[in-house]
Write a structure and sequence with these properties.
Structural class of chain B: alpha+beta
Helix content of chain A: 25-40%
Number of strands of chain B: 15
Helix content of chain B: 40-55%
Oligomer: heterodimer
Structural class of chain A: alpha+beta
Order of helices and strands of chain A: HEEEEEEEEHE
Number of strands of chain A: 9
Radius of gyration of chain B: 36 Å
Strand order of the largest sheet of chain A: 1-2-8-4-5
Distance between the termini of chain B: 85 Å
Strand order of the largest sheet of chain B: 6-7-8-14-10-11
Chain lengths: ~180, ~500
């Protein structure tokens, strides 16, 4: 193959390889995020409902790098048609409610110290949609129609785990129709 | 022959319908509205296909677009949730996959490439089965398939640039100019000229290369009398922007060219210069010489002619294109893997053996930070809540391995709550019978001065001990929940625990 011709093909390969590189870097977060609902739905958790997970152990293979000191509650939300209301009890330990959009960005997080009462009501609406908050409702606008909600509860004292689990299980999602 | 309006309609109608639907559907609608709109689209596609059959023949793209709407109809009826998610996130990628299928698979399974249908309209019937005609169409179809495949991947990323600007630029700027220029380029590469070898083929080729705008309203009769390899005469009547070829001599020619056949053919295909040949008296011309001067306006130098004189490998380009695609996939994939393993460190803040990325989880994070976070720290919180540090090595820069024993030494860190956790090479907790995976500020045993030591080893040790089992490589992670402002200000210099290697097996 003449040198010029070889360089032409090498350049084409390089440009395509760069395209593949960027396509992977950009799309992999979406693929990882879209795998979470599939995994949860396979395990029987529906959209706009929570799955309350027990303490993480060495056998857990759900999401990488879990913290063994936390109780996780996970949910997949879809606000394309209706907003959702999340109600949760806030324990006397570190606790946070976080939202992740479809590209994996953590666009909103609130923790126990930022909540004045022992209960919280968060309304999630789709982008550009309005909702008139009532009472202590906190309104969060999601940049994407679907995403992941994660509640973290710190296990401060293993002896009081049952109490924490009952508080954890009080968290609910309901669609506002 | 189809009227131009009908031709344009058949070429564009399906795409107009498709684009209108996508623009309307992507922002998201109720299932019922989507169902009605999709039913209308199926009906319109059916109408276009029926008209195409009446006037001509539907193309693969008409079928592909109709199939797309039928699949969406099925999804909306049986899995409405999947259909809505698909339309919101993957509608553009989905249609590009359909178009890719219509472009890529027919030639692969021996059917005519999608371009043939259109190309036949501009090519004489006797060339339709010519191997070069087929190869040119096949290559153009594969290039279009590559464009659609690339667009399908790009459209996964929701932005105006990746879903509209780049795909349209690829189609309208690159795709169309490639389609129009490639046949000529390919013929030139093959060294194929439009070289005729008889009076009949000369008459045909010159007619194909006739350029009506160049001729304008000229009325003239040009006669050629050839000698040498091919002996004989023919003449051409040019009138009202049309050309007619006749064998033999003309009754009243305006210009007579007498030339050895090969000399004139060389001039015709651009291998020799006409005026030079005339000056050198390689051919003779008599009559109205102004017609001779204008002949390069009357005829295109390189008429698109596809008569193969040489057998050509139909697949000459294909192995190279496939090789390039495979190489690009391997190199692109490896570069991403390599970045994850090695390069990702360079984007982060270092503090001894610990690394952290201040933009983890944030919406303003770059594509690389987002990628690394999604892969190795899915659902990480942003730094307003937690600062994560990660160590792959000890203080000496040696990779953490379970065959060595280590000691983590440090003091309390400035946060509301902190923890130190070990992970195996798969980034999950290291399974162990003692269920020991981490220490945190609540359960760690401190020495009198308030400092602590955590021993990392396979065999149990007294005090704070975390088992490394036999995981080969392992990682350590620090979580600082609600860190103090000093942490944000000095992420690279705050005092973090040291990781000291003690012994190795």
């Amino acid at each position: 193959m003449p040198m010029k011709n070889f360089l032409k093909w090498a350049l084409a390969t390089f440009i395509l390889a760069a395209g593949v590189h960027f396509a992977l870097v950009i799309t992999v977060p979406y693929f990882i995020m879209s795998a979470i609902p599939k995994k949860l739905q396979k395990a029987g958790t529906k959209i706009n409902t929570f799955k309350h997970l027990g303490p993480v152990s060495g056998k857990s293979r759900g999401i990488v790098m879990p913290s063994p000191d936390l109780l996780y509650t996970i949910g997949i939300y879809d606000v394309s048609e209706n907003p959702i209301r999340i109600t949760a009890k806030v324990p006397d330990t570190y606790w946070s409610l976080s939202f992740y959009q479809s590209n994996s960005d953590n666009f909103f997080v609130i923790n126990d110290e930022q909540i004045p009462s022992k209960e919280i009501q968060v309304i999630v609406v789709g982008k550009g949609r309005s909702y008139t908050a009532a009472g202590k409702e906190l309104v969060v606008e999601s940049p994407s129609d679907t995403g992941v909600i994660l509640i973290r509860t710190l296990i401060k004292d293993r002896k009081k785990l049952d109490d924490l689990i009952s508080i954890q299980k009080a968290a609910k999602i309901e669609e506002i129709i | 022959m189809l009227s131009k309006t009908k031709q344009i309609f058949l070429n564009a109608a399906s795409f107009v319908v498709l684009i209108a639907f996508l623009i309307w559907a992507v922002p998201g609608h109720r299932t019922e509205s989507l169902l009605i709109a999709d039913l209308i689209m199926v009906a319109v596609c059916a109408m276009i296909i029926a008209l195409a059959y009446r006037w001509d023949k539907p193309g693969y793209f008409d079928w592909a677009i109709a199939s797309y709407f039928i699949v969406i109809l099925g999804l909306l009826l049986f899995w409405p949730e999947t259909a809505r998610v698909f339309l919101r996130h993957y509608a553009a990628s989905g249609i590009n996959i359909c178009l890719f299928t219509a472009a890529f698979f027919p030639p692969l399974i021996g059917l005519a490439p999608f371009t043939v249908h259109r190309a036949k309209k501009g090519t004489r019937k006797e060339f339709w089965n010519n191997p070069i005609f087929i190869t040119v169409n096949r290559i153009i179809a594969y290039v279009w398939a590559a464009i659609f495949a690339l667009n399908a991947v790009m459209c996964l990323y929701p932005s105006m640039i990746t879903r509209a600007i780049i795909p349209n630029a690829l189609i309208f700027i690159f795709g169309f100019s490639f389609s129009s220029r490639f046949p000529d380029y390919y013929l030139r590469r093959l060294g194929l000229s439009s070289r005729p070898n008889s009076i009949e083929s000369f008459m045909r080729i010159l007619s194909v290369g006739f350029n009506p705008p160049g001729a304008g309203d000229t009325i003239t009769v040009i006669q050629f009398t050839f000698s040498g390899d091919v002996d004989g005469s023919c003449h051409f009547n040019i009138k009202d922007g049309k050309i007619e070829a006749f064998p033999g001599v003309a009754e009243k020619p305006d210009l007579i060219i007498e030339a050895p056949f090969n000399v004139w053919v060389d001039i015709m295909i651009g291998k020799a210069e006409g005026h030079k040949m005339f000056m050198e008296q390689k051919f003779k011309a008599s009559g109205d010489l102004s017609i001779l001067m204008r002949m390069n306006q009357f005829f295109k130098k390189k008429p698109f002619f596809m008569e193969a004189h040489t057998p050509v490998s139909r697949m000459k380009f294909i192995p190279k294109i496939i090789l390039v695609m495979i190489l690009a996939l391997v190199i692109g994939g490896l570069s991403v893997y390599g970045f994850l393993k090695i390069g990702s460190n360079s984007f982060k803040v270092k503090n001894g053996p610990w690394i952290t990325d201040p933009s983890t989880g944030r919406q303003d994070a770059g594509i690389y930070t987002r990628f690394v976070t999604a892969v190795v720290g899915t659902l990480a919180l942003n730094r307003s809540e937690v600062v994560y540090y990660f160590a792959k090595t000890d203080d000496d820069g040696q990779v953490l391995r379970s065959k060595c024993d280590y000691r983590i030494e440090g003091k309390d860190m400035d946060a509301r709550w902190w923890s130190i956790t070990l992970y195996g090479s798969d980034l999950f907790l290291i399974p162990n019978d003692q269920n020991r995976y981490s220490y945190n500020m609540m359960n760690i045993k401190r020495e009198k001065d308030g400092r602590y030591k955590i021993y990392l080893s396979q065999k149990p040790k007294a005090g704070n001990w975390l088992p490394t089992k036999n995981t080969d490589k392992f990682y350590a992670s620090i979580r600082l929940y609600r860190p103090k402002p000093s942490v944000y200000e000095n992420m690279g210099s705050i005092e973090l625990p040291r990781i000291i290697r003690e012994t190795c097996q």
